[in-house]
Amino acid sequence: MGRTYLVEESIGQYLTELSTKVKPYVTGLLIGQCSPQRDYVVRAVRTPPKEQQQEESLGPPRLASLDEEWITTHASQVSRMLPGGLLVLGVFMIATPELAKDGQNALRKLIFSVEKSLSKRRLWKPTEEDISDRAALQICSITKKVVCRTYDVQDPKSSAKPADWKYQSALTASWVALGCTVNVNIHIPLLATSPNHDLEKNTKNGLNRWSKQIEDSVFLINGQVKDEDTELLEGQKKFRGNAQPSPQFSDIKVLTQLCQAGSPRSTATVQVCSGSINLRGAVKCRAYVHGNKPRVKEAIQALKRDIINTLSDRCEILFEDLILNEGPQKKNFGREYHVLPQRLFVPVAGSSVMLSDYKFGDEAAAEIQERFVEMLDQPVQADDLHIAEDISTVDICPVTESPSETQQKQELTKATLLLKLQQNMGLVMAAAVAVLASIFSFNYFSD
Predict the structure, then answer these.
(1) How far apart are CA 183 and CA 162, in angstroms?
(2) Are 111 and 134 in contact (CB under 8 A)?
(3) What does pTM read for this prediction?
(4) Which residues are in coiled coils (predicted)?
(5) Is residue 100 domain-shared with residue 130, that is, in the same domain?
């Protein structure tokens, strides 16, 4: 038996409207949440059209012109705008009947390309319980026939499996929202042996170490540590009639363990560094979990991944902005302070789920509104842009010599001189012993 996809009813209307504009096909992403029993689709987003596609549309209809790189890039941009618990569940294609035969092959290729692109950016590792099936939805623009199949992205030789596609109204009405604020103070050394002082690579390595701390952290829900396998909503009153409003766990606390109990004893490592990166600030994190008896484990995992993703995504955006403004050739930075983009949340019409984005201080609301239309095909009002947090900063200490480095060199010089002195003292003592030994032996034989 294949997987079942419960789909927000408004998505059906969205796909129907797209089918009237097909020339000769349109692709897009399916956004939602996986669960052991079923999957939930809360958004469908078309791939932004490229200017040159208008010229290509003049030729005969064919799927060979599908721009795989453009679609995967879109998926990467969209994934940054998803809070914890939401992910790209698959891809869809609305095409004319003459393209239907090649549609599934094209969708299969896209699914694996998108997953490969997204997995490269993740700092967390999937667990055995993670669902690896992704949806391939094909719709005929003329007959409106819907065919949904799934592929296991963990198996390159995976074959198509049938899946049920069912529409449902008010799909997210009873979903649970979780939120927390995480104080960040990460010190990342820049190794002197690192080629060209690659800031982005060093930052990712530092975030990798930090992400393991988040994975091992303890999460308090309403001040309590709950067993992972218990129901998240256990003990809460259930409302009859209208759907239960989403409880907001705004007081979730994250306790980072300084060291793990029973962990093997570690030894200190001394490394020569040419500088450092310091990430400081307080980041707002949010996750959503379906309302079908969610477990504590699912909720905490969704929030953990949002904490890791939001900081990693901001650093990516910052470095992209630096390359865009100062050129990719700039590798060696002097001492600089940069402000990480702030997170903002935007409500989705007809849903209790909010999407997110990031803005720099000099970005106008109109730019963000334009990005939502381009990336998510969703118009947003300026009043709906809710900036969730204060400013977080990146302090890049100089990779050139600084007073602290000069002092370090002086200390190293002192240490070297002391070591040499000790060595010389050793030689002097050895010589003295040798002299005394010879005198002693001389006296001994002379007696």
Answers:
(1) 45
(2) yes
(3) 0.82
(4) none
(5) yes
Q: How far apart are CA 286 and CA 34, in angstroms?
A: 17
Domain assignment of residue 114, yes or no: yes
Beta sheet of 133-140, edge-to-edge order: 161-162, 146-152, 133-140, 87-95, 25-33, 39-46, 4-8, 164-168
433 is in which domain, residue-wise? Answer: 417-446
293 and 227 in a single domain? The answer is yes
Q: Cβ-count burial of 24 within 10 angstroms (0-12 exposed, 13-18 middle, 19+ buried)? A: middle
| Predicted pLDDT at 28 | 96
The CB-based long-range contact list for 321-326 (8 Å cut-off, 24+ gap) reads 321/360
Query: Distance between CA 315 and CA 219 in Å, rounded?
Result: 25
Identify whether residues 279 and 202 lie together within a single domain: yes
Distance separating alpha carbons of residues 395 and 279, to the nearest angstrom: 7
Cβ atoms within 10 Å, residue 35: 17
Closest CA to 337 of 282, 390, 279, 283: 279
Q: Is 294 a member of any domain? A: yes
129: domain CATH number?
3.40.140.10
Q: What is the pLDDT of residue 298?
A: 93
What percentage of the chain has pLDDT greater than the value 70?
76
What's the pLDDT tens digit per position in 44-81?
999 998 875 554 455 555 676 789 999 999 999 999 99
Q: CA nearest 375: which of 99, 120, 71?
A: 71
Cβ-contact 12, 171 below 8 angstroms: no
47 and 185 both lie in a single domain: no
The answer to whether residues 161 and 209 belong to one domain is no
Q: Is the bond preceding 126 in cis, omega lying within 30 degrees of 0? A: no
Q: 83 and 151: one domain?
A: yes
